[in-house]
Amino acid sequence: MAESSDLQIQKKKVPHLAILPIPLQGHLNAMLQLANLLHSKGFSITVIHTNFNSPNPSNFPNLRFEPIPDGLSDGKRWTEDPIHATHVLNDSCQEPFHDCLSRLISDSPHGPVTCIITDEIFHCTKDVADRLKLPRILLGTTSAFHIATMTTFKLLQQNGLLSISDGEPNTLIPEIPPLRMKDIPDIGTADPEMMERLGAGIDNAMRSALGYIQNTFDGLESTYLVKIRQDIHPMPLFEVGPLYKFSPGSSNSILTQDYSCMAWLDKQVPETVIYISFGSSGSFGKKDVVEIAWGLANSDQPFLWVLRPGSIHGHDSVELPEGFEEKTRERGRIVNWAPQQEVLAHPSVGGFWTHNGWNSTLESICEGVPMLCSPYLWDQKVNARFASHVWKVGIQLENGFNRSEIEWAIRRLMVEIEGKEIRERARDLKENAMRCMEKGGSSYESLESLVDLIMSL
Ligand code: UDP
Question: Which residue out of 340, 343, 374, 383 has the highest number of ligand 1 atoms within 8 Å of its CB and is therefore the one to mutate?
Answer without folding.
Answer: 340
